[in-house]
Amino acid sequence: MNIPAPCCATCGSHAVVKSGHNSSGTQQYLCKACGAHRVLVAKSPATDPERKTMVLRAVEVERLGLRAAERVFGVTRQTIARWLEKKPKLSRR
Ligand SMILES: [Zn+2]
Q1: Where are the domains of the chain?
Q2: Which of 47, 66, 68, 86 has the fewest CB atoms lying closer than 10 Å?
Q3: C-alpha 81 to ligand 1 mean position (Å)
Q4: In angstroms, what is the span from residue 16 Cα to ligand 1's centroid?
């Protein structure tokens, strides 16, 4: 079995060691190169900017309801509503 070597999400270094867990129980890593202390891959799809753009486009352009978007994309409607308040309107083209 080939397990990919973990690398730092901040600087890309492979000099990372396991360093406890965060409040939700996810493994955290300490980067020996830059000193970052965090999870390697964020669990939430809400942190993926490409996915965020896709969700906002579905809600604004395709007129998908917030509850429907919540079911389809797995992002809570409160989060989507917050994005809509902060983000300028997308063009329809
Ligand atoms: Zn690093």
Answers
A1: 1-42, 45-86
A2: 86
A3: 33
A4: 8
